[in-house]
Amino acid sequence: MEINKNQAAIKIQGVKKSFQVGNRNIPVLFGIDIEIQKGDFTMLVGPSGCGKSTLMHIIYGLEEPTEGKVIVNGNDIWSKTKDWRADFRNQKIGFIPQQPFWIKSLSVIENISIPAIISGKSFHSAISRAAKLIELVGMEKWADYRPFDLSGGQQQKIALARSLLLDPIFLIADEPTGNLDRKAGEDLLNLVYNINKQFKITILMVTHDIDQYKYASRIVKMLDGKIIADDINKHNLKNLEEIKNNSSTLS
Ligand SMILES: Nc1ncnc2c1ncn2[C@@H]1O[C@H](COP(=O)(O)OP(=O)(O)OP(=O)(O)O)[C@@H](O)[C@H]1O
Ligand SMILES: [Mg+2]
Question: Cβ(17) to ligand 1 under 6 A?
């Protein structure tokens, strides 16, 4: 797999998508062009049905675009084989869904280890990496629980830890706080924000919650299958922190 440090993390060129429903062709994406740089924390926002999840699935290698290209670190992912994409998904992209999936019979820490075991790492090395990540998200006390015995917010923290297991190029999250209450949502976003800052990991996240915009460095707005605005977020926490730090050194 080609990895080039100077390339954009994700480059989408002229992506269109239509779904075939019976004998009708339903267009959903009408030509999406976007480049996401390494280290960006991008939020993808827009009304229900505008095509956010469809675009995320195309980037994740699950849903094939009708037209256009998706280039991830120099790899034109839709020109590769299905097996290549499956491998790529497991090894190079962290994914946090709205509702995490778990293997019921396994403990929290074993569930976190699964991507490493699938990719052929030893059980021991997978568990020791999972142990570090479970600490990073502050859930080490729950390592031996079954995931379904945890609250929704705790499960999302575990899903976040699992998404980081194999050092992904980027992390995508489709409304990861959609089923959480306000406090649990804030806790998760704080963790994601700190991981973005600390490890410079690129994040692309869908949200409906305007209060979460402060965590993003960039806000991309969609409407009816098109991008209608794409702005550097001047009001994100990083800028606010810098302003605060500068003013405290000045005073
Ligand atoms: N497999 C499919 N077959 C047919 N139509 C689909 C399919 N998947 C999505 N669509 C349609 O594509 C449009 C965009 O759906 P999508 O799920 O991408 O929207 P969204 O922006 O993620 O919405 P939400 O905020 O509600 O999650 C919708 O009209 C939806 O019905
Ligand atoms: Mg959606």
Answer: no
Nearest to 173 by CA among 33, 53, 84, 36: 53
- Convert 74-107 to b/e letters by CB count within 10 Å (16 or more is b): ebebeeeeeeebebbbbbbbbbbbbebebeeeee
Q: How wide is the angle at C-alpha 183 spanned by C-alphas 178 and 186, nearest 5°? A: 70
- Determine if ligand 1 sits within 6 Å of the CB of residue 19: yes
* Ligand 1 lined by 105 (C-beta under 6 Å): no
Report the range of poorest mean pLDDT among 13-22, 86-95, 132-141, 231-240: 231-240
Residue 91 has a pLDDT of 87
Whole-angstrom distance, CA of residue 153 vs CA of residue 146: 14
Give the residue from 12, 37, 69, 32 showing the smallest Cα distance to 218: 37
First-to-last C-alpha distance (Å) of the chain: 50
Domains and CATH numbers, the chain: 10-101+171-250 (3.40.50.300)
Shortest-distance ligand to the CA of residue 49:
1
Amino acid identity, residue 85? R
